[in-house]
User: Which sequence fits this backbone?
Protein backbone atom coordinates (compact mmCIF):
# COMPACT_ATOMS: atom_id res chain seq x y z
CA UNK A 1 0.00 0.00 0.00
CA UNK A 2 1.48 3.33 -0.96
CA UNK A 3 0.53 6.88 -0.16
CA UNK A 4 -1.88 8.54 -2.58
CA UNK A 5 -0.09 11.88 -2.24
CA UNK A 6 1.46 11.50 -5.66
CA UNK A 7 1.32 14.44 -8.07
CA UNK A 8 -1.70 14.65 -10.33
CA UNK A 9 -5.36 14.79 -9.56
CA UNK A 10 -6.64 12.91 -6.53
CA UNK A 11 -9.50 10.51 -7.04
CA UNK A 12 -12.82 12.04 -5.95
CA UNK A 13 -14.42 10.31 -2.97
CA UNK A 14 -18.21 10.45 -2.65
CA UNK A 15 -19.49 11.82 0.65
CA UNK A 16 -23.01 10.38 0.81
CA UNK A 17 -23.51 10.96 4.53
CA UNK A 18 -22.59 14.64 4.21
CA UNK A 19 -24.87 15.06 1.20
CA UNK A 20 -27.80 13.49 3.05
CA UNK A 21 -27.30 15.70 6.08
CA UNK A 22 -26.95 18.78 3.86
CA UNK A 23 -30.29 17.92 2.25
CA UNK A 24 -31.86 17.84 5.73
CA UNK A 25 -30.27 21.23 6.43
CA UNK A 26 -31.72 22.62 3.19
CA UNK A 27 -35.21 21.38 4.07
CA UNK A 28 -35.00 22.83 7.58
CA UNK A 29 -33.80 26.23 6.34
CA UNK A 30 -36.51 26.36 3.64
CA UNK A 31 -39.15 25.65 6.29
CA UNK A 32 -37.67 28.35 8.51
CA UNK A 33 -37.64 30.86 5.68
CA UNK A 34 -41.23 29.91 4.79
CA UNK A 35 -42.28 30.37 8.42
CA UNK A 36 -40.65 33.80 8.57
CA UNK A 37 -42.09 34.93 5.21
CA UNK A 38 -45.58 33.70 6.11
CA UNK A 39 -45.56 35.54 9.45
CA UNK A 40 -44.28 38.71 7.85
CA UNK A 41 -46.44 38.88 4.69
CA UNK A 42 -49.53 36.96 5.78
CA UNK A 43 -49.29 34.74 2.70
CA UNK A 44 -47.03 31.70 2.22
CA UNK A 45 -43.75 33.09 0.85
CA UNK A 46 -40.03 32.75 1.43
CA UNK A 47 -38.21 35.43 3.37
CA UNK A 48 -35.04 36.63 1.59
CA UNK A 49 -35.11 33.89 -1.11
CA UNK A 50 -32.02 35.26 -2.89
CA UNK A 51 -29.93 35.19 0.29
CA UNK A 52 -31.07 31.70 1.19
CA UNK A 53 -30.39 30.43 -2.33
CA UNK A 54 -26.88 31.94 -2.30
CA UNK A 55 -26.19 30.30 1.04
CA UNK A 56 -27.43 26.86 0.00
CA UNK A 57 -25.45 27.06 -3.24
CA UNK A 58 -22.32 27.94 -1.23
CA UNK A 59 -22.83 24.94 1.08
CA UNK A 60 -23.26 22.68 -1.95
CA UNK A 61 -20.15 24.17 -3.55
CA UNK A 62 -18.09 23.42 -0.42
CA UNK A 63 -19.44 19.87 -0.43
CA UNK A 64 -18.52 19.41 -4.11
CA UNK A 65 -15.06 20.89 -3.48
CA UNK A 66 -14.47 18.36 -0.68
CA UNK A 67 -15.65 15.51 -2.92
CA UNK A 68 -13.35 16.56 -5.75
CA UNK A 69 -10.41 17.03 -3.38
CA UNK A 70 -10.76 13.36 -2.49
CA UNK A 71 -9.63 13.56 1.14
CA UNK A 72 -11.35 11.31 3.65
CA UNK A 73 -12.33 14.05 6.12
CA UNK A 74 -15.21 14.34 8.59
CA UNK A 75 -18.69 14.36 7.03
CA UNK A 76 -20.76 15.64 9.95
CA UNK A 77 -19.10 18.97 10.77
CA UNK A 78 -20.03 20.83 7.57
CA UNK A 79 -23.80 20.14 7.79
CA UNK A 80 -23.94 21.05 11.50
CA UNK A 81 -22.06 24.30 10.92
CA UNK A 82 -24.22 24.88 7.85
CA UNK A 83 -27.40 24.61 9.92
CA UNK A 84 -26.10 26.99 12.60
CA UNK A 85 -24.99 29.51 9.96
CA UNK A 86 -28.37 29.21 8.25
CA UNK A 87 -30.22 29.89 11.50
CA UNK A 88 -27.98 32.94 11.97
CA UNK A 89 -28.91 34.05 8.45
CA UNK A 90 -32.63 33.62 9.18
CA UNK A 91 -32.23 35.68 12.35
CA UNK A 92 -30.34 38.38 10.42
CA UNK A 93 -33.10 38.49 7.80
CA UNK A 94 -35.70 38.76 10.55
CA UNK A 95 -34.09 41.65 12.48
CA UNK A 96 -34.32 45.28 11.27
CA UNK A 97 -31.76 45.68 8.48
CA UNK A 98 -30.62 49.04 9.84
CA UNK A 99 -28.80 47.44 12.81
CA UNK A 100 -25.63 47.26 10.74
CA UNK A 101 -25.14 49.25 7.56
CA UNK A 102 -22.08 49.29 5.32
CA UNK A 103 -21.52 51.09 2.06
CA UNK A 104 -19.69 49.19 -0.64
CA UNK A 105 -19.27 51.45 -3.65
CA UNK A 106 -22.74 52.72 -4.43
CA UNK A 107 -24.61 49.82 -2.82
CA UNK A 108 -25.77 49.94 0.79
CA UNK A 109 -25.69 46.58 2.49
CA UNK A 110 -27.93 45.78 5.46
CA UNK A 111 -27.58 43.22 8.25
CA UNK A 112 -28.71 40.15 6.28
CA UNK A 113 -26.56 40.90 3.22
CA UNK A 114 -23.47 41.54 5.34
CA UNK A 115 -24.04 38.39 7.39
CA UNK A 116 -24.38 36.44 4.12
CA UNK A 117 -21.11 37.90 2.78
CA UNK A 118 -19.21 36.98 5.96
CA UNK A 119 -20.78 33.51 6.08
CA UNK A 120 -19.84 32.76 2.47
CA UNK A 121 -16.29 33.99 3.12
CA UNK A 122 -16.09 31.86 6.29
CA UNK A 123 -17.26 28.73 4.45
CA UNK A 124 -14.73 29.53 1.72
CA UNK A 125 -11.93 29.71 4.29
CA UNK A 126 -13.10 26.44 5.84
CA UNK A 127 -13.06 24.70 2.45
CA UNK A 128 -9.65 26.07 1.41
CA UNK A 129 -8.07 25.16 4.76
CA UNK A 130 -9.71 21.71 4.80
CA UNK A 131 -8.40 20.92 1.33
CA UNK A 132 -4.93 22.47 1.42
CA UNK A 133 -3.68 21.92 4.99
CA UNK A 134 -1.93 18.56 4.99
CA UNK A 135 0.54 18.92 7.79
CA UNK A 136 0.53 20.61 11.18
CA UNK A 137 4.30 21.14 11.21
CA UNK A 138 3.89 24.85 10.48
CA UNK A 139 1.73 25.10 13.58
CA UNK A 140 3.89 23.11 15.97
CA UNK A 141 7.36 24.22 14.83
CA UNK A 142 6.72 27.90 15.47
CA UNK A 143 4.75 27.64 18.69
CA UNK A 144 6.63 30.41 20.51
CA UNK A 145 6.29 32.64 17.45
CA UNK A 146 2.54 32.04 17.49
CA UNK A 147 2.36 32.74 21.22
CA UNK A 148 4.35 35.96 20.79
CA UNK A 149 2.10 37.01 17.92
CA UNK A 150 -1.00 36.36 20.04
CA UNK A 151 0.36 38.35 22.97
CA UNK A 152 1.32 41.19 20.63
CA UNK A 153 -2.22 41.27 19.25
CA UNK A 154 -3.61 41.34 22.77
CA UNK A 155 -1.25 44.12 23.87
CA UNK A 156 -2.13 46.16 20.78
CA UNK A 157 -5.79 45.87 21.72
CA UNK A 158 -5.01 46.79 25.33
CA UNK A 159 -3.27 49.97 24.21
CA UNK A 160 -4.86 51.09 20.94
CA UNK A 161 -8.24 49.34 21.09
CA UNK A 162 -11.39 51.38 21.01
CA UNK A 163 -14.11 50.92 23.59
CA UNK A 164 -17.42 49.57 22.32
CA UNK A 165 -20.19 49.07 24.87
CA UNK A 166 -17.70 49.43 27.72
CA UNK A 167 -15.40 46.60 26.59
CA UNK A 168 -12.15 47.13 24.79
CA UNK A 169 -12.19 44.45 22.11
CA UNK A 170 -12.08 46.19 18.78
CA UNK A 171 -8.84 47.13 17.09
CA UNK A 172 -9.04 49.64 14.27
CA UNK A 173 -6.21 49.88 11.77
CA UNK A 174 -7.22 52.51 9.25
CA UNK A 175 -10.30 51.25 7.42
CA UNK A 176 -9.96 47.70 8.75
CA UNK A 177 -11.35 46.92 12.16
CA UNK A 178 -11.50 43.57 13.82
CA UNK A 179 -11.55 41.78 17.13
CA UNK A 180 -8.13 40.20 17.73
CA UNK A 181 -9.40 38.16 20.68
CA UNK A 182 -11.20 35.99 18.11
CA UNK A 183 -7.93 35.09 16.41
CA UNK A 184 -6.17 34.93 19.76
CA UNK A 185 -8.28 31.95 20.81
CA UNK A 186 -6.95 29.88 17.90
CA UNK A 187 -3.37 30.96 18.59
CA UNK A 188 -3.68 30.07 22.27
CA UNK A 189 -5.05 26.60 21.45
CA UNK A 190 -2.10 26.01 19.11
CA UNK A 191 0.37 27.07 21.80
CA UNK A 192 -1.26 25.06 24.61
CA UNK A 193 -1.58 21.96 22.46
CA UNK A 194 2.08 21.94 21.43
CA UNK A 195 3.34 22.94 24.88
CA UNK A 196 1.22 20.43 26.81
CA UNK A 197 1.95 17.58 24.40
CA UNK A 198 5.67 18.16 24.86
CA UNK A 199 5.55 18.34 28.65
CA UNK A 200 2.67 16.03 29.50
CA UNK A 201 4.87 13.34 31.01
CA UNK A 202 6.59 15.88 33.26
CA UNK A 203 3.31 17.52 34.24
CA UNK A 204 1.65 14.21 35.00
CA UNK A 205 4.42 12.18 36.63
CA UNK A 206 7.25 14.36 37.96
CA UNK A 207 5.17 15.83 40.76
CA UNK A 208 6.35 17.57 43.91
CA UNK A 209 4.55 17.10 47.22
CA UNK A 210 3.16 20.34 48.63
CA UNK A 211 0.90 19.64 51.60
CA UNK A 212 -0.20 16.21 52.78
CA UNK A 213 -1.30 14.24 49.72
CA UNK A 214 -1.55 17.28 47.46
CA UNK A 215 1.07 17.18 44.72
CA UNK A 216 1.84 19.66 41.98
CA UNK A 217 4.04 19.58 38.89
CA UNK A 218 7.48 21.16 39.47
CA UNK A 219 7.51 24.96 39.43
CA UNK A 220 9.25 25.60 36.08
CA UNK A 221 6.58 23.57 34.27
CA UNK A 222 3.76 25.33 36.10
CA UNK A 223 4.95 28.74 34.98
CA UNK A 224 2.97 28.82 31.70
CA UNK A 225 -0.16 27.82 33.62
CA UNK A 226 0.43 30.68 36.04
CA UNK A 227 1.02 33.08 33.15
CA UNK A 228 -2.25 31.94 31.61
CA UNK A 229 -4.11 32.67 34.84
CA UNK A 230 -2.53 36.13 35.01
CA UNK A 231 -3.40 36.75 31.36
CA UNK A 232 -7.04 35.77 31.89
CA UNK A 233 -7.37 38.02 34.94
CA UNK A 234 -5.57 40.81 33.06
CA UNK A 235 -8.19 40.60 30.32
CA UNK A 236 -10.94 40.97 32.93
CA UNK A 237 -9.36 44.18 34.27
CA UNK A 238 -8.06 45.90 31.15
CA UNK A 239 -10.53 44.76 28.50
CA UNK A 240 -13.43 44.47 30.93
CA UNK A 241 -14.27 41.30 29.11
CA UNK A 242 -15.13 38.44 31.42
CA UNK A 243 -16.27 36.31 28.48
CA UNK A 244 -12.90 36.10 26.70
CA UNK A 245 -11.12 35.54 30.02
CA UNK A 246 -13.45 32.69 30.94
CA UNK A 247 -13.14 31.20 27.45
CA UNK A 248 -9.33 31.21 27.38
CA UNK A 249 -8.99 29.86 30.89
CA UNK A 250 -11.69 27.19 30.53
CA UNK A 251 -10.16 25.88 27.29
CA UNK A 252 -6.71 25.91 28.91
CA UNK A 253 -8.00 23.86 31.87
CA UNK A 254 -9.77 21.41 29.53
CA UNK A 255 -6.57 20.86 27.53
CA UNK A 256 -4.52 20.57 30.73
CA UNK A 257 -6.89 17.87 31.93
CA UNK A 258 -6.81 16.07 28.58
CA UNK A 259 -3.01 16.11 28.58
CA UNK A 260 -2.34 15.10 32.19
CA UNK A 261 -5.56 13.51 33.43
CA UNK A 262 -5.06 15.24 36.77
CA UNK A 263 -8.33 16.35 38.34
CA UNK A 264 -6.65 18.07 41.29
CA UNK A 265 -4.95 20.60 39.03
CA UNK A 266 -8.22 21.47 37.32
CA UNK A 267 -10.08 22.00 40.61
CA UNK A 268 -7.16 24.09 41.84
CA UNK A 269 -7.22 26.13 38.64
CA UNK A 270 -10.93 26.85 38.94
CA UNK A 271 -10.53 27.80 42.61
CA UNK A 272 -7.63 30.15 41.82
CA UNK A 273 -9.58 31.79 38.97
CA UNK A 274 -12.62 32.33 41.18
CA UNK A 275 -10.47 33.66 44.02
CA UNK A 276 -8.68 36.01 41.62
CA UNK A 277 -11.97 37.20 40.20
CA UNK A 278 -13.42 37.91 43.64
CA UNK A 279 -10.26 39.79 44.60
CA UNK A 280 -10.52 41.87 41.40
CA UNK A 281 -14.19 42.58 42.10
CA UNK A 282 -13.21 43.92 45.52
CA UNK A 283 -10.47 46.16 44.10
CA UNK A 284 -11.80 47.45 40.77
CA UNK A 285 -15.17 49.22 40.72
CA UNK A 286 -16.02 48.35 37.10
CA UNK A 287 -15.68 44.62 37.75
CA UNK A 288 -17.80 45.07 40.89
CA UNK A 289 -20.49 46.91 38.90
CA UNK A 290 -20.70 44.07 36.43
CA UNK A 291 -21.15 41.51 39.20
CA UNK A 292 -23.75 43.70 40.92
CA UNK A 293 -25.71 43.99 37.65
CA UNK A 294 -25.62 40.25 37.30
CA UNK A 295 -26.79 39.55 40.84
CA UNK A 296 -29.60 42.11 40.74
CA UNK A 297 -30.39 43.63 37.33
CA UNK A 298 -33.64 45.01 38.76
CA UNK A 299 -31.70 47.53 40.84
CA UNK A 300 -31.34 49.65 37.68
CA UNK A 301 -33.93 48.24 35.25
CA UNK A 302 -33.63 51.04 32.67
CA UNK A 303 -29.85 51.42 32.82
CA UNK A 304 -27.22 48.74 33.39
CA UNK A 305 -29.72 45.96 34.04
CA UNK A 306 -31.84 46.71 30.96
CA UNK A 307 -30.39 44.20 28.49
CA UNK A 308 -30.33 41.34 30.98
CA UNK A 309 -33.94 41.94 32.05
CA UNK A 310 -35.14 42.19 28.43
CA UNK A 311 -33.32 38.96 27.55
CA UNK A 312 -35.02 37.16 30.44
CA UNK A 313 -38.39 38.53 29.30
CA UNK A 314 -37.69 37.31 25.77
CA UNK A 315 -37.00 33.78 27.00
CA UNK A 316 -40.17 33.93 29.13
CA UNK A 317 -42.33 35.10 26.20
CA UNK A 318 -40.93 32.29 24.05
CA UNK A 319 -41.95 29.52 26.41
CA UNK A 320 -41.77 25.95 25.18
CA UNK A 321 -42.48 26.32 21.44
CA UNK A 322 -41.77 30.02 20.85
CA UNK A 323 -43.79 32.66 19.08
CA UNK A 324 -42.59 31.67 15.60
CA UNK A 325 -39.94 33.37 13.49
CA UNK A 326 -40.83 37.02 12.93
CA UNK A 327 -43.59 37.08 15.53
CA UNK A 328 -41.53 37.83 18.64
CA UNK A 329 -39.39 40.73 19.85
CA UNK A 330 -42.11 43.38 20.25
CA UNK A 331 -40.79 46.88 19.57
CA UNK A 332 -40.60 49.21 22.57
CA UNK A 333 -41.05 52.79 21.39
CA UNK A 334 -40.00 51.81 17.86
CA UNK A 335 -36.83 50.17 19.23
CA UNK A 336 -35.90 46.52 19.56
CA UNK A 337 -36.26 45.37 23.18
CA UNK A 338 -32.59 44.27 23.24
CA UNK A 339 -30.23 46.72 21.48
CA UNK A 340 -27.29 44.34 20.86
CA UNK A 341 -29.50 41.40 19.89
CA UNK A 342 -27.59 40.51 16.70
CA UNK A 343 -24.19 40.24 18.39
CA UNK A 344 -24.57 39.47 22.09
CA UNK A 345 -28.13 38.19 22.46
CA UNK A 346 -29.01 36.06 19.42
CA UNK A 347 -29.88 33.21 21.75
CA UNK A 348 -32.44 35.37 23.58
CA UNK A 349 -34.08 36.28 20.27
CA UNK A 350 -34.08 32.64 19.16
CA UNK A 351 -35.36 31.65 22.60
CA UNK A 352 -38.34 33.91 22.08
CA UNK A 353 -39.13 32.92 18.51
CA UNK A 354 -38.23 29.21 18.56
CA UNK A 355 -38.86 28.57 22.24
CA UNK A 356 -36.98 26.21 24.51
CA UNK A 357 -37.39 23.47 21.90
CA UNK A 358 -35.46 25.45 19.31
CA UNK A 359 -32.77 26.61 21.75
CA UNK A 360 -32.15 23.03 22.89
CA UNK A 361 -31.76 21.94 19.25
CA UNK A 362 -29.23 24.72 18.67
CA UNK A 363 -27.27 23.84 21.81
CA UNK A 364 -27.40 20.22 20.64
CA UNK A 365 -25.61 21.29 17.44
CA UNK A 366 -22.74 22.76 19.48
CA UNK A 367 -22.59 19.54 21.47
CA UNK A 368 -22.25 17.60 18.22
CA UNK A 369 -19.35 19.87 17.17
CA UNK A 370 -17.57 19.18 20.49
CA UNK A 371 -18.19 15.45 20.26
CA UNK A 372 -16.85 15.38 16.70
CA UNK A 373 -13.77 17.29 17.81
CA UNK A 374 -13.10 14.82 20.63
CA UNK A 375 -13.62 11.93 18.20
CA UNK A 376 -11.13 13.46 15.76
CA UNK A 377 -8.76 13.89 18.71
CA UNK A 378 -9.15 10.23 19.73
CA UNK A 379 -8.29 9.08 16.21
CA UNK A 380 -5.42 11.56 15.77
CA UNK A 381 -2.01 10.22 14.94
CA UNK A 382 -0.15 11.92 17.80
CA UNK A 383 -0.60 13.98 20.96
CA UNK A 384 -0.13 17.43 19.42
CA UNK A 385 -2.75 16.84 16.81
CA UNK A 386 -5.12 15.25 19.33
CA UNK A 387 -4.87 18.24 21.66
CA UNK A 388 -5.20 20.64 18.72
CA UNK A 389 -8.42 19.00 17.50
CA UNK A 390 -9.91 18.78 20.99
CA UNK A 391 -8.93 22.37 21.79
CA UNK A 392 -10.33 23.84 18.57
CA UNK A 393 -13.68 22.07 19.01
CA UNK A 394 -13.81 23.02 22.69
CA UNK A 395 -13.22 26.68 21.84
CA UNK A 396 -16.46 26.67 19.86
CA UNK A 397 -18.39 24.63 22.42
CA UNK A 398 -17.17 26.53 25.48
CA UNK A 399 -17.78 29.87 23.78
CA UNK A 400 -21.36 28.86 22.96
CA UNK A 401 -21.87 27.66 26.54
CA UNK A 402 -20.50 30.90 28.03
CA UNK A 403 -22.61 33.25 25.91
CA UNK A 404 -25.69 31.05 26.43
CA UNK A 405 -25.12 31.18 30.18
CA UNK A 406 -24.62 34.95 29.97
CA UNK A 407 -27.91 35.39 28.07
CA UNK A 408 -29.70 33.31 30.69
CA UNK A 409 -28.16 35.26 33.62
CA UNK A 410 -26.35 32.17 34.90
CA UNK A 411 -23.04 34.08 34.87
CA UNK A 412 -22.27 37.81 34.55
CA UNK A 413 -22.99 39.14 31.07
CA UNK A 414 -20.15 38.72 28.63
CA UNK A 415 -19.33 40.28 25.29
CA UNK A 416 -18.47 37.25 23.20
CA UNK A 417 -20.33 35.98 20.17
CA UNK A 418 -22.45 32.88 19.65
CA UNK A 419 -20.35 30.97 17.10
CA UNK A 420 -21.77 30.89 13.53
CA UNK A 421 -25.00 32.65 14.59
CA UNK A 422 -23.96 36.07 15.91
CA UNK A 423 -23.29 38.87 13.46
CA UNK A 424 -19.60 39.72 13.20
CA UNK A 425 -16.91 39.41 10.55
CA UNK A 426 -13.93 38.45 12.75
CA UNK A 427 -15.96 35.90 14.64
CA UNK A 428 -17.35 34.18 11.53
CA UNK A 429 -14.03 34.13 9.68
CA UNK A 430 -12.09 32.71 12.64
CA UNK A 431 -14.76 30.09 13.28
CA UNK A 432 -14.55 29.17 9.59
CA UNK A 433 -10.78 28.75 10.04
CA UNK A 434 -11.40 26.50 13.06
CA UNK A 435 -13.81 24.29 11.11
CA UNK A 436 -11.34 24.09 8.25
CA UNK A 437 -8.52 22.99 10.58
CA UNK A 438 -10.78 20.41 12.28
CA UNK A 439 -11.71 19.00 8.87
CA UNK A 440 -8.06 18.90 7.80
CA UNK A 441 -7.01 17.14 11.02
CA UNK A 442 -9.77 14.57 10.62
CA UNK A 443 -8.17 13.25 7.41
CA UNK A 444 -7.97 9.48 7.72
CA UNK A 445 -5.34 9.17 5.04
CA UNK A 446 -5.60 7.21 1.82
CA UNK A 447 -8.15 4.41 1.91
CA UNK A 448 -6.96 0.84 2.26
CA UNK A 449 -7.21 -0.94 -1.07
CA UNK A 450 -9.92 -3.60 -1.18
CA UNK A 451 -8.80 -7.15 -0.61
CA UNK A 452 -8.63 -8.88 -3.99
CA UNK A 453 -11.59 -11.22 -4.29
CA UNK A 454 -9.62 -14.12 -5.70
CA UNK A 455 -7.22 -14.19 -2.78
CA UNK A 456 -10.11 -14.47 -0.36
CA UNK A 457 -11.61 -17.39 -2.27
CA UNK A 458 -8.21 -19.02 -2.30
CA UNK A 459 -7.85 -18.65 1.45
CA UNK A 460 -11.26 -20.22 2.04
CA UNK A 461 -10.51 -23.06 -0.36
CA UNK A 462 -7.24 -23.82 1.40
CA UNK A 463 -8.84 -24.46 4.78
CA UNK B 1 -59.28 28.44 14.23
CA UNK B 2 -59.02 29.98 10.78
CA UNK B 3 -56.97 28.09 8.20
CA UNK B 4 -54.25 30.76 7.90
CA UNK B 5 -53.38 30.62 11.60
CA UNK B 6 -53.49 26.86 11.44
CA UNK B 7 -51.12 26.75 8.44
CA UNK B 8 -48.78 29.17 10.19
CA UNK B 9 -48.72 26.95 13.25
CA UNK B 10 -48.08 23.89 11.12
CA UNK B 11 -45.10 25.49 9.35
CA UNK B 12 -43.65 26.79 12.61
CA UNK B 13 -43.82 23.36 14.19
CA UNK B 14 -42.51 21.75 11.00
CA UNK B 15 -39.40 23.97 11.20
CA UNK B 16 -38.78 22.91 14.81
CA UNK B 17 -39.41 19.28 13.84
CA UNK B 18 -36.94 19.62 10.94
CA UNK B 19 -34.25 20.77 13.38
CA UNK B 20 -34.77 17.62 15.43
CA UNK B 21 -34.91 15.37 12.37
CA UNK B 22 -31.52 16.79 11.41
CA UNK B 23 -30.16 16.19 14.92
CA UNK B 24 -31.51 12.62 14.90
CA UNK B 25 -29.77 11.97 11.56
CA UNK B 26 -26.52 13.40 12.95
CA UNK B 27 -26.75 11.27 16.09
CA UNK B 28 -27.38 8.19 13.95
CA UNK B 29 -24.26 9.02 11.91
CA UNK B 30 -22.22 9.45 15.12
CA UNK B 31 -23.45 6.14 16.55
CA UNK B 32 -22.64 4.27 13.34
CA UNK B 33 -19.20 5.79 13.37
CA UNK B 34 -18.52 4.67 16.94
CA UNK B 35 -19.84 1.14 16.26
CA UNK B 36 -17.69 0.84 13.14
CA UNK B 37 -14.64 1.90 15.15
CA UNK B 38 -15.45 -0.63 17.89
CA UNK B 39 -15.83 -3.43 15.34
CA UNK B 40 -12.39 -2.85 13.84
CA UNK B 41 -9.75 -3.09 16.55
CA UNK B 42 -6.86 -3.65 14.10
CA UNK B 43 -3.95 -1.43 14.98
CA UNK B 44 -5.64 -0.13 18.12
CA UNK B 45 -2.35 0.01 20.01
CA UNK B 46 -0.50 2.00 17.39
CA UNK B 47 0.71 2.17 13.82
CA UNK B 48 4.10 2.52 12.25
CA UNK B 49 4.12 4.80 9.22
CA UNK B 50 7.10 4.64 6.89
CA UNK B 51 8.29 8.14 5.95
CA UNK B 52 11.37 7.44 3.82
CA UNK B 53 12.77 4.08 2.90
CA UNK B 54 15.52 2.32 0.99
CA UNK B 55 12.96 0.44 -1.11
CA UNK B 56 10.87 -2.12 0.74
CA UNK B 57 8.63 -1.27 2.59
CA UNK B 58 7.71 1.71 0.42
CA UNK B 59 7.31 5.17 1.90
CA UNK B 60 3.73 5.70 3.02
CA UNK B 61 3.24 2.09 4.14
CA UNK B 62 1.34 1.69 7.40
CA UNK B 63 1.87 -1.23 9.79
CA UNK B 64 -0.69 -1.88 12.54
CA UNK B 65 1.36 -2.87 15.57
CA UNK B 66 1.02 -5.86 17.86
CA UNK B 67 2.07 -5.53 21.50
CA UNK B 68 5.38 -7.14 20.50
CA UNK B 69 6.65 -6.09 17.09
CA UNK B 70 10.08 -7.04 15.81
CA UNK B 71 11.88 -5.09 13.10
CA UNK B 72 14.75 -6.33 10.96
CA UNK B 73 15.94 -7.86 7.70
CA UNK B 74 15.05 -11.36 8.89
CA UNK B 75 11.94 -12.63 7.09
CA UNK B 76 10.52 -13.75 10.44
CA UNK B 77 10.31 -10.15 11.68
CA UNK B 78 6.89 -8.53 12.13
CA UNK B 79 8.08 -5.66 9.99
CA UNK B 80 10.60 -6.84 7.41
CA UNK B 81 13.05 -4.10 6.41
CA UNK B 82 14.85 -4.69 3.13
CA UNK B 83 17.53 -2.16 4.00
CA UNK B 84 21.27 -2.86 3.56
CA UNK B 85 22.03 -1.05 6.83
CA UNK B 86 19.50 -3.01 8.88
CA UNK B 87 20.57 -6.05 10.90
CA UNK B 88 18.66 -9.34 10.66
CA UNK B 89 17.14 -8.84 14.10
CA UNK B 90 17.49 -5.10 14.51
CA UNK B 91 15.05 -3.69 17.07
CA UNK B 92 11.88 -4.55 18.93
CA UNK B 93 8.86 -2.41 19.80
CA UNK B 94 6.93 -3.42 22.90
CA UNK B 95 3.72 -2.05 24.36
CA UNK B 96 4.08 -2.14 28.14
CA UNK B 97 1.28 -0.92 30.34
CA UNK B 98 0.31 2.38 28.79
CA UNK B 99 3.03 3.21 26.32
CA UNK B 100 5.42 2.02 23.68
CA UNK B 101 9.09 1.16 24.23
CA UNK B 102 11.78 0.61 21.65
CA UNK B 103 14.86 -1.52 22.24
CA UNK B 104 17.85 -2.07 20.00
CA UNK B 105 18.73 -5.78 19.71
CA UNK B 106 22.47 -5.15 19.37
CA UNK B 107 22.31 -4.14 15.73
CA UNK B 108 25.40 -3.22 13.77
CA UNK B 109 24.34 0.26 12.78
CA UNK B 110 22.12 1.19 15.72
CA UNK B 111 18.62 2.58 16.06
CA UNK B 112 17.83 6.31 16.15
CA UNK B 113 14.89 7.94 17.88
CA UNK B 114 14.27 11.49 16.66
CA UNK B 115 17.80 11.44 15.23
CA UNK B 116 19.50 10.34 18.47
CA UNK B 117 21.04 6.83 18.81
CA UNK B 118 19.47 4.83 21.64
CA UNK B 119 20.92 2.51 24.25
CA UNK B 120 18.67 0.07 26.11
CA UNK B 121 14.87 0.30 26.19
CA UNK B 122 13.51 3.79 25.62
CA UNK B 123 9.90 5.00 25.86
CA UNK B 124 8.60 5.97 22.44
CA UNK B 125 5.84 8.59 22.20
CA UNK B 126 3.25 8.92 19.48
CA UNK B 127 4.69 11.17 16.81
CA UNK B 128 8.28 10.13 17.53
CA UNK B 129 10.50 9.19 14.63
CA UNK B 130 12.35 5.90 14.46
CA UNK B 131 15.26 5.40 12.09
CA UNK B 132 16.80 2.08 11.15
CA UNK B 133 19.42 2.27 8.41
CA UNK B 134 17.91 4.51 5.73
CA UNK B 135 14.35 3.67 6.75
CA UNK B 136 12.62 6.39 8.74
CA UNK B 137 9.30 5.55 10.43
CA UNK B 138 6.89 7.42 12.68
CA UNK B 139 4.91 5.88 15.54
CA UNK B 140 1.27 6.95 15.33
CA UNK B 141 -1.72 6.33 17.49
CA UNK B 142 -3.99 3.51 16.34
CA UNK B 143 -7.32 4.26 14.71
CA UNK B 144 -10.02 3.72 17.29
Assistant:
Amino acid sequence: MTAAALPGFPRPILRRRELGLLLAVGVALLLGSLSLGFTRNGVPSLADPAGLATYLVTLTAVHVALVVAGRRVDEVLLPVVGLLGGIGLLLAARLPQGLVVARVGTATLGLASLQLVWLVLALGIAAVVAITVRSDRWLRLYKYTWAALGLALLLLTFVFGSDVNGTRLTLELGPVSGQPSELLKVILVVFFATYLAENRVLLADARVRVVGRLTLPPAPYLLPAGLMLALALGIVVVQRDLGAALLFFAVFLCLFYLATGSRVDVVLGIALFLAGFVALALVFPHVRDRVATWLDPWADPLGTGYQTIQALHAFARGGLLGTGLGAGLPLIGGQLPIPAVHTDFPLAALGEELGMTGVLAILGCYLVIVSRGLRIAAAAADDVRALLAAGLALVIGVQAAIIAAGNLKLIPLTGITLPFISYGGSSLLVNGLIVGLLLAFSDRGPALPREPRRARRFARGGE
Amino acid sequence: MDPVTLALWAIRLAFLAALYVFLALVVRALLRDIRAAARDPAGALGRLVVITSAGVPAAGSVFPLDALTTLGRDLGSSVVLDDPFASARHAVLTFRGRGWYVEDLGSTNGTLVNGVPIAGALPLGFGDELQIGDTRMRLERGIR
In short: Chain B has a mean pLDDT of 86. The first helix of chain B runs from residue 3 to 39.
